[in-house]
Amino acid sequence: MSTAPEAPPGPAGVDLSAPGQKFMSCWSCRLTSGGGLVLSGAYVFNAARRVMRQGGTTSIGTVAQITFAVGLAAWGLVLITNPVGKAQRKT
Q: pTM value?
């Protein structure tokens, strides 16, 4: 019986057999996805601010929108910086 061939090791000897590993090693993929999330957060934040700028009352929905926008932007920054991949370097 034959077995499936192993995936070649990626840069710096990192095994790229898992799909998540391949995504995290691609700088342009992380930058595109993270940038999209940051811009989405900016769009949602701007929509909430527009209501407040026009003199609307600040409701719980507006607060939820701003909180969601900050969460989207933070998720995008984490995706771009990839702190988990930096912590798993071999010594």
A: 0.66
